[in-house]
Fold this protein.
Amino acid sequence: MSTSETILVADDSKVSRTVVIGLIRNRRPDARFLEAGDGRTALAMALTERPDLCVLDINMPEMTGLEVAETLRQQAPELRLAILTANVQEATRARAEALGVVLHRKPAKGEVIDAILAALPQA
């Protein structure tokens, strides 16, 4: 028996969300997607819906992806988190690492999405 996964994609760019969702859907056709265009909405959705995976951009309005990740680590440590961003400065990478979140570099391509999905248990 197979259950579909729920994946939250949070990015202030609708185009980026669409690309990421499309790439994941190609690999996980039964997945259910949640979309957030800002950090505060992403945080609320993650805490309410408890998705199997949260893919967070860093630069978003309201809260950054790192702020969302930090809050989720405190309030819902069981959630699987991934950062997908063009902001790959050493300080950003170090903060993500300190939170136990793997940082993946944009643009979203097949191999990047495969690395992100590796965080999910295989069905």
User: Anything to note?
Assistant: The domain at 6-117 is CATH 3.40.50.2300 (Rossmann fold). The mean pLDDT is 91.
